[in-house]
Amino acid sequence: MGEKDIWFRYEVTAGRFSGTPVNWKGWLALAGLIGAPTGLLLLAMPWLRPLGPLGVILGLAVVFAIVFPGAVALVRAKGRRVN
User: Around Cβ 55, how many Cβ atoms within 10 Å?
Assistant: First the structure.
């Protein structure tokens, strides 16, 4: 059985989660995870703009709600814990 392909290294200390990409696959995955929801937000701006600042705030909240849990799940799935 081959070794798992590691994209990230991470540590969890005192309830704090910290992860770092260790190769190009990790960097590319993070860029896609951040870029896709952000791109969708930019495409949705014409519909959110009539709401004023509230539309931008709601859009950013949705992006953060997707990116942060997604990044943690990705790092845990494709990473190696170092502590």
Answer: 15
